[in-house]
Amino acid sequence: MRSVTSKKLPEEKQILGRQRLAWVVLLGSFAICVTLTLAVPLAVNAFLQNSTELLDVRVQSNQGTVGIDDKNGGRQAVIAGDQGQLIGPGESVLTGSTATALVTISPPDDPAALARMQVYSNTDARLLEAETPRYEMSDKNNEVRLRLDNGRIRLSLPEAGERPSIIYITTPQGEITLAEPGHYVLIVTNEETQVTVQEGQADIAASATDEALLLSSNERAQIPTGSGPVGPLPPERNLVKNGDFSDDLSYWTQFPWQVERADQPEGQVRVLNSGGEPRLNIVRQGIGHADVLIRQSINQDVSELESLRLLLTFRLLGQSLDVCGVEGSECPLFVRINFVNEDGFSRTWQQGFYAVGDVIPGQTPDGCIRCDMIQAPHLRVPLQQDFFFDIDLDGELARQGRIPPSFIESVVLVSSGHAFEVEVVDVSLLAEE
Questions:
Q1: Please, which residues bridge with residue 316 across strands?
Q2: Does residue 46 register a pLDDT over 60?
Q3: Cα distance from N-terminal residue to C-terminal residue, the chain
Q4: Residue 190 lies in a domain
Q5: Does the reported pTM lie above 0.85?
Q6: Assigned domain for 263 exists
Q7: Count of CA atoms in the C-beta half-sphere (13 A) of 357
Q8: Which of 108, 65, 64 is closest to 86 using CA atoms?
Q9: Contact status, residue 86 vs residue 54, Cβ threshold 8 Å
Q10: 161-191 tens-digit pLDDT
């Protein structure tokens, strides 16, 4: 009996061992299966959510020669009329005293602008990051990070498409976050950062303190060096309504086309979507002279203002005449301001723009020879490239020995010539109290 019992014990132990091993294998396999079932989709989802690619950031010269500094200290030059240059993280845009630049941020292989940045003279702006999710299923935002060490920029964010964009701007005094469509101006000096929200919303945080501030449309704030934000303060007021044509032609009045030849067609004036934002499009194809005028009544007293600035962003897509014609009166785009000066006389200031041809005295003059208006020489701009024009109206009139305005009557856009096409992105008349 003992020998039989002693033989059964090892056999039972072996059976129990095999059972334990089977359970270990079974449970281990189950655990691995569950882990893979959960982990693989999570890992794939994380990859799809977090995988990014670079946004296209293109720098074009608006005026003068713009410097591009790369990460290794090398410098390249971009001149007016060039197609511009793509830059990546770590590269800087530098403008001297006579240069301005236009920076456009867009998705890869997509012309729709996510943001447009006007870079004024004596500005140093560095691109830190510009990323967009690689896959459409990602719910992440487009993100752009900039560092503005000194100078002035104006940022325009169109209405968000399928994916919102967030722009973070670091300055020596703090950080500004822009996540709403609108128009924003930043000015940075050694003493302070100044932020103006013409339209939209901005979060402002000071680097020296934990203080923060939320700015809404028509508000301004300062971040002095070493202290918290100050504001909201009164901003520059934009006297032009619907200057970005986001509400079609509301507040603007189109006058009838003037066509020289009865057998020739008028043109078209309409607001079209171009590059993801509304633009006023004026186009005419024909022989002989034609012109059209679009006016907005302002009717504002400006006698007590500190300054009055005109901002105009546009693109000349084509023109058949050289310069502005034989009398200088057929620019594809004029901007005019009708005003009453401090002596009580009605006056008109005018600036003409063209993109084709060279000024030849007696053939293609640099000004309108029969216009009874205050005017500077016509300004040549790059063809088929966005251009921004910014002028201190009081300073310009003083430069020409003219009396400053006390009352603004209207702002007028005029397109003229034979065949031409113009896009106007934005018109602003900024009044600083």
A1: 422
A2: no
A3: 114
A4: yes
A5: no
A6: yes
A7: 24
A8: 108
A9: no
A10: 677 888 999 999 999 999 899 999 999 999 9
